Fold this sequence. Notes:
Chain A: It is a multi-pass membrane protein. Chain A: One of its GO terms (cellular component) is plasma membrane. The complex is a heterodimer. Chain A has helices spanning 2-34, 44-54, 65-84, 100-120, 124-155, 160-169, 176-192, 211-214, 220-245, 256-283, 292-312. Chain A is mainly α. Chain A has one domain. The longest helix of chain A is centred in the N-terminal third of the chain and has 33 residues, at 2-34. The radius of gyration of chain A is 19 Å and the shape is globular. By secondary structure, chain B is mainly alpha-helical. Chain B is built from nine helices and no strands. Chain B has helices at 2-27, 31-56, 59-87, 100-121, 123-128, 130-152, 156-176, 182-205, 210-219. Chain B is globular and about 60 Å long. The termini of chain B are far apart. The chains are: A mainly alpha, B mainly alpha.
Amino acid sequence: xxxxxxxxxxxxxxxxxxxxxxxxxxxxxVKARVQGRQGPHLLQGYYNLAKLFRKETxxxxxxxxxxxxxxxxxxxxxxxxxxxxxxxxxxxQELVTANIIVFLYLLVTGRLLIALLxxxxxxxxxxxxxxxxxxxxxxxxxVTVVVFAALVYVTGSFSIxxxxxTATTMFPAYNPTVLLLSVPLFILIIVETGRVPVDNPETHLxxxxxxxxxxxxxxxxxxxxxxxxxxxxxxxxxxILLNIILPAGIALEMSAGVLILGGVLFxxxxxxxxxxxxxxxxxxxxxxxxQIPNLFMIAFFFSILTIFIEVxx
Amino acid sequence: MILTEVxxxxxxxxxxxxxxxxxxxxxxxxxxxxxxxxxxxxxxLVLIALGxxxxxxxxxxxxxxxxxxxxxxxxxxxxxxxxxxxxxxxQDLKFSYLRPPGALMLSILIxxxxxxxxxxxxxSLYAASSLFFLGSVIGVSLVLMGLLAVCIRRMAISKVxxxxxxxxxxxxxGLFVTELPFFIEFVIIIxxxxxxxxxxxxxxxxxxxxxxxxxxxxxxHLLSEEGGIS
Lengths: 313, 230
């Protein structure tokens, strides 16, 4: 049992690390195609990471120890989170307690580290990015809690493994609340990964950037680690959405054939979701900063609605 | 046999989507999206009526579905779109009393209030069928959400869509709790068509005198220079 749990942890983390840059590139490719451009190669994300890992890391003269440890800590935290979220296989026994509240705290800790990094370099843009990130965070966190509360209420468990296992028994057509829940979870992916209309990951304009502003003074290996942790975070949130609304193919037992099938199906489902995210990003313009809470409110509305409907049904 | 098993599931999904569309009518700023959402909401009611027809076997429900399809999914939205194209209004950014986030919050409270009230009033219905209870709660919630849209929107066309959404709520409630006679349903549809026609007149001419009205119609390309309707 313990051996199986370790295999799960290794496979899960390795799979997440390998596919995350691919998903980022799929979104970029879709956005480029919509704009009438060729777009980057689907493997460009891996080339960029390899290039950044080889480059020298420079630090601001004001930078303290936060700038040195934050990139490693941010990725480590997300890898721990990756152990909690089954991507293509739900083992019988959990290696760590995959509590959804702990998962939320891990995401918040990662965000806090990046905000501190933005402040640590003592640059104006970094400070501005951190300030904006924390302002947004103060509004989105309660909404995130309500979204996950709805998820817990519908599935009846705090454990992510149990939530996914329950989802495999509930075909969406027979549980409409699961379909309803997919909307706030999708909005959560957009918000947590800083995508249009909340933030624009492509921009470096001083007036608009949030996430990029905090990383402006980061370079080389550190930047690669942040890029990778950003991609991992996106994959984990995508896995939560996909494994709840479309759990088809997720392996419930340890056998090579089932695991490979589960991995391939997740890759396909993830690619489709990335295409949807890319199209969504292309269809909307970036919102004005003070309009962003409107989007959060929609997520909140859907989450509360999910709980109501579950009570009424 | 399979249809009678699937019908409750599809009615549930449609009911939830009806509520979602109600929320969207409160928050959307694009006029074309508002009309499209109303059209979608009406189409969901057609599906609900068909589902109930399969479950209950009443031919009246089939007639209601056909009438709703012809009038609310096709006729009224086409008419509103025509007005919208003529007056060249793309977005409704004017709100009174409440902005969309506040309206969504209030609509959550409305749904909760309706649920709490109905849980006591329709206790026997809830015990008999949770589906019909859900339908009645969503129907009345939609009426109140439509009313909220009428209150917070400032443009005449948006207000009309609020009224139309209210009527959709009445229809949903009627389908699940007290079935309205088909004749009444037919008269309501005629009322709605007149409402839309009146709105088209109000939208372009409410702030003009009778003498200026003709000029105003011509300004919005609703009347040709020769005096004929264009």
